[in-house]
Amino acid sequence: MNREETESKVKNDCPLTYAFNIIGGKWRLPIIWALWQNKTLRYNELKRRIHGITNMMLSQALKEMEDYGLVVRKQYMEIPPRVEYSLTEAGMELVPSLHSLAKWGKQMQNKRNSIGEA
Amino acid sequence: MNREETESKVKNDCPLTYAFNIIGGKWRLPIIWALWQNKTLRYNELKRRIHGITNMMLSQALKEMEDYGLVVRKQYMEIPPRVEYSLTEAGMELVPSLHSLAKWGKQMQNKRNSIGEA
DNA sequence: CTGGATCCCATCGGATACTG
DNA sequence: CAGTATCCGATGGGATCCAG
């Protein structure tokens, strides 16, 4: 850990690798998806929508994504606490590429499913 | 391992997740990249271009990608053995989406680098 | 309500050595 | 040349409990 990865543990090899490091992991895509559909969600709303995620995974993923500039965290100083999350500009700009990839993935799935038919 | 992941260990949740499962991992992107630039490469050519990859990682990644229909393996029955790899149609169709993502990644890198200026 | 700390385990990536 | 087998350490994901 004494190399140039001191800052963010991301290897800056190429932009593509960089992008994959940012959106990789098990929960980031679902989070992006949920935030994209709902613009703004509170912590527990997010948690309920993602189903299966634990507090630790969610808060960890959110924090990392905030560091990358993907999501915005807005904390209201109230009792009980309220924290709202939403995508940044950069986060939204990512979505089209994701759709493109998803479209490709769908084609791949269809190919798999139609292997047995003439 | 007794669920519906019996076939390919890929969760079919959504096409995007599917896509990420296919191109995820440390070496698949570099391999796709190398094959896209060179159309066709032999095993050792590939290995030399990727630098740092071991036999095990390379052959394993190639086999998985072949299973997914991303690359084609062409073996010539000669002595010494010759095996050539190239991208399938599906593999090539993936590249534009990758470029899109890479472009986004580049923007992100630039933002990072220009934090201290202005 | 919104998290943090700790501990655990599965999986991934890899070094090394060997084979057809 | 083109891989495979084995073994191992690192890493990431997760359960559970705790805290402001």
TrEMBL record, chains A, B:
<keyword id="KW-0238">DNA-binding</keyword>
<dbReference type="GO" id="GO:0003677">
    <property type="term" value="F:DNA binding"/>
</dbReference>
<dbReference type="InterPro" id="IPR036390">
    <property type="entry name" value="WH_DNA-bd_sf"/>
</dbReference>
<dbReference type="Pfam" id="PF01638">
    <property type="entry name" value="HxlR"/>
</dbReference>
<feature type="domain" description="HTH hxlR-type">
    <location>
        <begin position="14"/>
        <end position="113"/>
    </location>
</feature>
<keyword id="KW-0804">Transcription</keyword>
<dbReference type="InterPro" id="IPR036388">
    <property type="entry name" value="WH-like_DNA-bd_sf"/>
</dbReference>
<dbReference type="InterPro" id="IPR002577">
    <property type="entry name" value="HTH_HxlR"/>
</dbReference>
<keyword id="KW-0805">Transcription regulation</keyword>
<protein>
    <submittedName>
        <fullName>Transcriptional regulator</fullName>
    </submittedName>
</protein>
